[in-house]
Automatic annotation (TrEMBL):
Entry superkingdom: Eukaryota
Name of this chain's protein: Yeast cell wall synthesis Kre9/Knh1-like N-terminal domain-containing protein
Keywords per UniProt: Signal
Signal peptide boundaries: 1-20
Keyword Signal: yes
Residue ranges occupied by any Yeast cell wall synthesis Kre9/Knh1-like N-terminal domain in the UniProt entry: 32-120
InterPro entries assigned to the protein according to its UniProt record, in alphabetical order: Kre9/Knh1-like_N
Length: 121
């Protein structure tokens, strides 16, 4: 039988190994939106990415952010806290989005991935 000290030490070692376990850097390719797509403010679309090479340990600090002309609107993420292994997340384009043909989606997890540019009418 284990003593309380031995059991506590074993539990602590297990907890530390789980917390200290490094996560793999993963840079999935965004598959939607594609170049030349045209979206309207207020519409909902699925942002999708390739999960075929997803590592076992990836970040759960996920976000999708809209960028215009290379400038991120990180104060207003379109989605956050979703499972990166899912391969998609639905987002709604804000109704007050200014028209332009220089938009991109940035997918954050443990790295930032940029979609091709597309248009919001």
């Amino acid at each position: 039988m284990f003593s309380k000290t031995t059991l506590f030490a074993a539990l602590l070692a297990t907890a530390v190994s789980v917390v200290a376990r490094p996560q793999d850097v993963w840079d999935p390719t965004i598959t939607s939106p594609t170049a030349g797509v045209r979206w309207l403010p207020g519409d909902t679309h699925n942002i999708t990415w390739d999960t075929s090479n997803a590592p076992a340990d990836i970040s759960e600090g996920s976000q999708v952010v809209l960028a215009k002309g290379g400038v991120l609107d990180s104060a207003n993420p379109l989605a956050q806290g979703f499972d990166l292994r899912a391969g998609f997340v639905p987002v709604t384009i804000p109704v007050d989005t200014i028209a332009g043909d220089d938009y991109a989606i940035v997918l954050f997890g443990d790295s930032g991935n940029l979609s091709p540019t597309f248009t919001i009418l």
